[in-house]
Design a protein that fits this description.
With 125 residues, the chain is an alpha+beta fold. It is built from 4 helices and 4 strands, in the order αααββαββ. It folds into 2 domains: 53 residues, Malate/L-lactate/L-sulpholactate dehydrogenase, four-helix barrel (Hypothetical Oxidoreductase Yiak, Chain: A, domain 1), CATH 1.10.1530; 54 residues.
Length: 125
């Protein structure tokens, strides 16, 4: 059995270029690329590059939005409700994860949920 190894940075760049070509914002394309490559790197091939065509089709068909940013609708010092604006799941997930981590660092716990894409994140200090 022969193996073909491709530099991780080249794969991330390829995914980014594909997603930008179908209209995704470059920072959103980067977030998606990092998640897909990490999925493969960790051996979760069902959630790695295998999903690339699904994301391209979702953007092309308008299933996922190309424009906008996730937005906090309601929040307390430890919780938040986020509108994912129907953006790519990894984009919404990263936004929520970063917010949950910040809240956990500030007050010891962070609990963030989103609608408009499936995301539920919890962080504790």
């Amino acid at each position: 059995m022969s193996r073909c190894l491709v530099d991780q940075r080249k794969v991330v760049s390829f995914i980014e270029r594909c997603m930008v070509a179908v209209g995704t914002k470059s920072n959103h394309a980067r977030s998606l690329a990092e998640v897909l490559v990490e999925g493969d790197r960790r051996g979760h091939y069902s959630h790695g590059l295998n999903r690339m065509d699904m994301y391209v089709k979702d953007i092309q068909l308008g299933v996922c939005a190309k424009e906008g940013e996730p937005a906090v609708e309601k929040e307390t010092v430890a919780t938040a409700l986020v509108d994912g604006k129907n953006l790519l799941g990894p984009v919404v997930g990263k936004f929520c994860m970063d917010l949950a981590i910040k809240k956990a660092q500030d007050v010891g716990i962070g609990w963030v949920v989103a609608h408009g894409k499936l995301a539920f994140l919890f962080a504790a200090k």
